[in-house]
Amino acid sequence: MDFTNIFGLSCIIFFAGLLIGFFLPKTYSRLIDMFLFASTLLRRHLKSYVTPILGVGISIMIFTSMFAALDGMMLTMEGTEVSRNLVVRKKGEVMSYSSALNISMREGLKTINHVEQVSPVVMGYVVDINETYHLIRGIEFETYREVVNIDLIQGRHLNSSDKPIAALAGKYYFEQNNLTLGKNYTLTLYGGKKPPFTKKYTFSIVGVFETGMLQDSELWMKINACRKIIGMKNNKTSTFIVKVDHPKFMENVSREIEAKFEDEKVEAIPENDEWKFMSQVYDQFLVIIQLLLLTAFVTAIMGIMNVMVNIVDERKRDIAILKSIGYSNWLIFGIFTVESIFIGAIGGSIGLLIAILVFRTVGLSISAAGYTFNLILTTQTMINSVLFSITIGLISSLFPVYKAVRVRPIETLRM
Prior knowledge:
This protein has two domains: 2-78 and 278-414, no CATH class; 85-245, no CATH class. The strands form three sheets. Strands 1, 3, 4, 5, 6, 7, 8, 9, 11 and 12 form a ten-stranded mixed beta sheet that branches. The chain is 55% helix and 20% strand. Mean pLDDT is 76; it is low at 1-8 and 20-30. It starts with a helix and ends with a helix. The protein is α+β, with helices and mostly antiparallel strands. A hairpin with a 2-residue loop joins β13 (365-368) and β14 (371-374). α3 packs antiparallel against α9 (271-314) and α11 packs antiparallel against α13.
């Protein structure tokens, strides 16, 4: 995020200014001595560094994961386009998966002025025996393509001659489950009546679509096949997608639908308003992320600071000797600041490396308020992670460096 970038860059510029201002060419030999002394401290106190390095590593993993989630949410919201569709569902059911309407409402919806097409949609999710969530959507292919634009990147659309096992897969779902076009796959769920008490459903991918939105994490199939898997009756549907002939009539059509089906307690909202709800989820998630990052930030700083304070206390005589042979306070400052930043950078590198390996090999997604967002690890997030780890090291060095600078050579060497 921008605020992290600015803060991290400010810290880098600050530290670079110190290096340029205080380590002039005539002090190169002492600069080398400074790094040699810092490396000696590292070797002598290597075991003490394990805990703060792990703390920083965990902090960076949290940082990377949280901002990857925010990037995924933002990409999903940016992919939302203006449409002429109204989503009709049970009033108050924020998650369409929990909505259930009578399919007979369809004929009544068709009689409303300016309604161009009505398509029922069944939505649900199931958990297989490996505890993996599958978001599935049942569509009436004849009408669904008239109300929703579907861009296929592989294969073909569903048609009337397809068997119930035929399905379309979102790009993300297709890749994460290692599916292949035309090959049969079995979805094994709990809930069977006989041992081993499981139910098996076979499906075959005939096409892969990409929307750049949430649907890329879904599996689409014929509406009756979806009803069978999620246990919905044939006379029910989750929602209706109502296409209006012109955007200027959407508000009037929405009011008329809600008035006509008042007894059914439904609401008709513009399809884009449903996606606007994601911005609320995003803001709430951002607050949670900030709290987690603050906790991780403080914990990592306290861990490094505790180690560095102990090292300063143990090495007071060494510091006194350095001062007695001409080392300035700024050089002492540089020794312990470099060491602290080194701890932060090592921990951050480990945390970032683990995060990259997880994202590249496994791929992750999160569910929030009925939506599934793919986690996207961007170059910007990785840069921010490095800056964040360096910032942790820089801030955690301030108090230990203050103690080191205040060491008095004569009094310390007399002890």
